[in-house]
Specification:
Cytochrome Bc1 Complex, Chain A, domain 1, 16 helices, 5-stranded mixed sheet, alpha+beta, 6-stranded mixed sheet, 11 strands
């Protein structure tokens, strides 16, 4: 069984370790409490831009030397940016933990942000944006955010826009970094076979070099005051239409969060779910159909997405409406609820078999909740969810003032579509 330990440093940074003696690898992660929802429209994409740029060279390593140092040991480097945080991580054999920490620390503390590299990486990110624009099943999720959170950072793309990227220069990028890359916003997470004391000593030199700064809070998401489901359509010549239907939910801190996970599993998380069985298996309306949850600090979003023939859009929405109404009117059976709980409990076990996933689990929990909850406690909370709690939460979540729909494809806002959307959550 893995052991989780947390050490708070004098400057406000934190070190969390996961000791798993059976592992031969280690994963080191550096987490920063900044993401796209901390950005103004002019800064849109800044967090993601910085994530790219720290790989482009430091005062003692070129971009090539950064990757060669880790890959030359059989390891790998990666990073990602979300709405509320940025994570940089490296995985190596356990004996190379100090090297992994040194490379990541060098990237964060000593990146040069060379103007020539900034210009090249700007072009790379513009290509990344173009790539997602060519993937309607991905783009429609961003469109959904824009519909449900208009004129708010949560409605902006994590990658930014071409306009915002082209407006950024070295000074503005460094100013954004300096506002957010300070000790109180950092967590170092290390998962592997070494004891907490040993892993902590590897991380302390990095933590001690972090500057002290002022915590900057993001703008809270505004309450939706709509009385009907919001609709956004991006007309595009595609063979399929991609749709995403979203509902605002409680946050990651809410006591109903695990009930929401069970609700989502019953609705559309996997091939056994009601949506998959109904939309695909019974009616043959779509190849891909499913639901997922995104949790934030102050709210969450349950998204139902599908790729389908444009002629099947209205009928698919009707089937989704019927499944939503069933969840609102009648609690799921004991056996169905048990299967959903067991699926989630089993997924936690399967996910946390690697040092990378252990690090991601501990790092995100520490950054967002202040401590890493042992997975056994999370599993126990899921096991206690009851059918009537699922029904009661469905009644709370599935209502028009919390809903929005985004569509990409050769679709018009026809009277039939508008009428169907209006009846989605009656």
């Amino acid at each position: 069984m893995a052991t989780y330990r947390l050490s708070n440093q004098p400057n406000g940074s934190r070190i969390v370790t996961v000791r798993a003696p059976h592992l031969r690898s280690v994963c080191v992660g550096i987490w920063v409490s900044v993401g796209s929802r901390y950005e103004s429209s002019e800064e849109s994409g800044a967090s993601h831009f910085i994530e790219h740029l720290v790989f482009k060279g430091t005062r003692k390593r070129s971009a090539k030397q950064i990757t060669q140092t880790i890959e030359g040991l059989g390891g790998y480097l990666n990073a990602y940016t979300s709405e509320e945080h940025t994570c940089y991580y490296a995985k190596t054999a356990a004996r190379h933990c100090t090297t992994a920490m040194d490379v990541l620390g060098d990237m964060i503390l000593n990146s040069t942000f060379d103007p020539a590299e900034i210009q090249k990486e700007r072009q790379v990110i513009e290509e990344e944006i173009a790539m997602y624009e060519d993937q309607p099943n991905q783009q429609v999720l961003e469109d959904l955010n824009a519909v449900i959170w208009p004129r708010h950072p949560l409605g902006q793309s994590i990658a930014g826009t071409r306009k915002s990227l082209r407006a950024m220069n070295r000074d503005s990028i460094l100013a954004f970094r300096d506002r957010h890359y300070h000790a109180a916003n950092f967590v170092v997470a290390i998962a592997g076979p070494m004891p907490h004391a040993e892993a902590k000593q590897i991380a302390i030199p990095f933590c001690e070099r972090l500057p002290v700064g002022v915590l900057e809070k993001f703008d809270p998401a505004p309450e939706r005051k709509a009385t009907s489901v919001g609709i956004g359509i991006r007309r595009k010549r595609t063979e399929q239409s991609s749709m995403a239907l979203g509902f605002l939910t409680p946050s990651r801190h809410d006591s109903s969060r695990n009930t929401l996970r069970v609700l989502n599993t019953i609705l559309g998380e996997n091939m056994s779910s009601r949506l998959f069985q109904s939309v695909r298996e019974e009616h043959g309306m779509a190849y891909s159909i499913g639901s997922s949850i995104g949790f934030f600090d102050d709210l969450g979003l349950l998204s139902i997405s599908a790729g389908l023939d444009p002629s099947n859009l209205v009928r698919t929405l009707e089937i989704i409406r019927d499944e939503i109404q069933k969840l609102k009117s009648l609690a799921p059976g004991i056996a169905e609820t048990r299967r959903a709980r067991d699926y989630l409990i089993g997924q936690i076990d399967l996910t946390l078999e690697s040092s990378t996933q252990l690090m991601l689990f501990a790092g995100e929990q520490t950054l967002t909740k202040g401590k890493a909850t042992p997975p056994e406690k999370l599993q126990d909370e899921i096991a206690r969810v009851r059918p009537r709690e699922v029904r009661d939460l469905a009644r709370q979540v599935f209502c028009s003032e919390k809903a929005a729909l985004a569509i990409i494809g050769p679709v018009k806002k026809s009277p039939e579509l508008i009428d169907t959307v209006a009846k989605l959550v009656d």
